[in-house]
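Appendix B, Record 12. Input sequence as logged:
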Amino acid sequence: MTEHKDYILSANVLNLDSLDSRAEVRDSINGSEMKRDSLQVAQTSQITQVRHEGDKMPFAVEQADGVFFLLLICFLFFTHVYHGGVTYLKEKTKLLFSFNSERRVIYSQITAKETFYSYFLVAQAIVLISICLYDCLVVYSAYEPSSSPLLTILMFIVLIALFYGFKDFLYRLLGYIFDVKPKMTLWRQKSVAMIEILGILYFIPILLLLYANVYNIQIFVFMGVLFLIVQIIFFYQIIFFFIEEKFNFLCLIAYLCTFEILPYIFLIIGAIYLYRIDVLTIL
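Logged structural output:
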């Protein structure tokens, strides 16, 4: 009888031990599950935090709404000019390539509509050159773009407008100094025609440069070649004038370097300086 009681007692002890071991196993399982859940929550919060911060996307000029607005205005006005001023555009092209049209150009009457066409095409050329120059600096410059691309482009527009205005003033001044006012008037008109033609030729390449994202280097080179061709044609007009007036060849070289080549170098240096500074930070 005593042995039977001992057996029952030992069986109860074993049951209690098994229950304790099961409870310990259950607790360990619950603890591991809680650790796994906490680890998953930590990982999820970490991933969420990383996603919230994100990586800054590289800046692109086509993302600026102000640039799109400028191009839209140029497109609308250019369609108006092309619709009603095809004859005007042909006359400007003939003017740039002509040599014996001095009397017809100087004494021809210019209507208000043609004056509007001229001002707009010059403004369009300045806007497109500014956008192209800014995009070129963004892509190939080592400096970071400013926080306000539209403001930088507007500063480029002001700089280039002042540049061409100063060149026009120099043409007037040379006409008064050397008493060649008719020739200088013709030069001024041909210089304006050169800018207007660039404003027409640059529109499609600028659109491809900003929104196609292919052949960027080729488009830059193409626009540079167009500028050089138009500039060489204008230089040829100047060389023809110096030969016709029998000026010294050294005077021709000095004039080309001083008034037609060096100003463009200073213009590029000024544009790079404006690109480097952040006007909003300064203000």
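Residues 2-9, 11-17, 47-52, 103-107 have pLDDT under 50 and may be disordered.
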